Amino acid sequence: MPLPVTVYRWDDPGAPQLPNSQVKPSHYIDIIKKCLVDGYGAKASLGWTMPFVSPDGLKAVFRNSSAEASGSYVQIKCKTGADPVGGTVYLQTAPLLTDYDPDWTAISCAGNTYPFGGNSRITKWCLIGTSAGFYLFAIYDTKLTMKMGTSGHIAFFCGDIDSFVPNDLNRFTLLSYGASGNQHTPSWSLSLAFLSPVASIGFMHESNGTSNGKVMELLSQFITAPTTTVNGVPSEFRVYSRPLIAIDGYSVSGTTGINADSEGTRIGDSSLHPAYRGQMAGFIQTQAPRYSDQLWPQTSMIGGQEHWLIHSGHNGGCNYWVNMESWYD
Fold it and tell me: What is the top-level taxon of the source organism (predicted)?
């Protein structure tokens, strides 16, 4: 079912801010809460809920829509339990949570720990989302162009993928480069702004709700330039595709381990843990990496709809985009 997209930005009237040189984990939690649950200014929220929150507000659990999405959960918390300037934020997903501070070793189908923030000068942000999922982007205060040059920044997806499996019970996840394993320290490279054509980006369980996690990779059709500067703007001729979310290490001849689901079926034939699970919501790639020297942010009409260009975490060219109008078409 197509879902409408809302775009939230740091420069919107009434938008919550990341104060320069004073950014704390609580500022990120506030931004996510305002965009997902409360709304701000003239902008309504995405229709998520916040069923659990700690008394100090430094641990919060958000849930996407149970009517329009999977009704799954994500915990967002301050890494240290305190709220220091430049502190790190942890994010972790699950189909079901019943407390703001769960014992993650006992949670079925838990995702990996993903860190972001960790820098007091990441100030300019944009959250693009629906009732089912969202992308969060943010860049260092002095950066003006699309290349970040390894400065602190943020680029990840959290929510329901566009799954090939009908009623996929484990379609809610966190996707970012490096999210295939537990991470504890933010890095410029742990983001959607540093993707190669084959990149490990997540960890997913079986579509019937069984806990059987496998590393997932993003398979892109076109060349990328994550560290190679490519200036200018491409021609108006556009070819674009939607990268695939696939099981990392899939072998057509394999019958065990990575290459089998919990019932012993080859993943190439499985609907429980299919070799090709789905696609990222609203996420496309165009054929020509460019834009390294162009001002941030960049948007463009592609296929008749407006898209947001994901920045480069290094000095590279950019050719991944997020639809700003409609997902899950």
Answer: Bacteria
Q: What is the per-residue pLDDT across 126-135, written as a single tens digit (0 to 9) for each?
A: 999 999 999 9
Pick left, alpha or beta for residue 141 (phi over 0 → left; psi -120 to 50 → alpha; otherwise beta). alpha
Q: How many residues does the chain have?
A: 329
Q: Are strands 88-94 and 73-78 parallel, antiparallel or unpaired?
A: antiparallel
SS3 36: helix
When pLDDT is cut at 50, 70 and 90, the band that residue 209 belongs to is: very high
- Give the pLDDT of residue 328: 98
Distance between CA atoms of residues 306 and 297, nearest Å? 13
- CA angle, 79 then 81 then 85, to 5°: 70
Alpha-carbon span 132 to 97, nearest angstrom: 17
Name residue 7's amino acid.
V
3-state secondary structure 3-22: EECEEEECCCCCCCCCCCCC
DSSP code, position 244: E
Q: What is the pLDDT of residue 1?
A: 85
Give 25's DSSP letter: H
DSSP state of 37: I
**Number of domain units in the chain:** 1
Domain range spanning residue 139?
Answer: 3-327
- Taking the whole predicted model, whether its pTM rises above 0.90 is answered as yes
Check if the beta carbon of residue 137 is closer than 8 Å to that of residue 154. yes
Task: Please state, in angstroms and rounded to a whole number, the distance separating the CA atoms of residues 148 and 132.
Answer: 29
Token pair listed for 24:
């704390």
Q: Which residue matches tokens 């100090």? A: 56
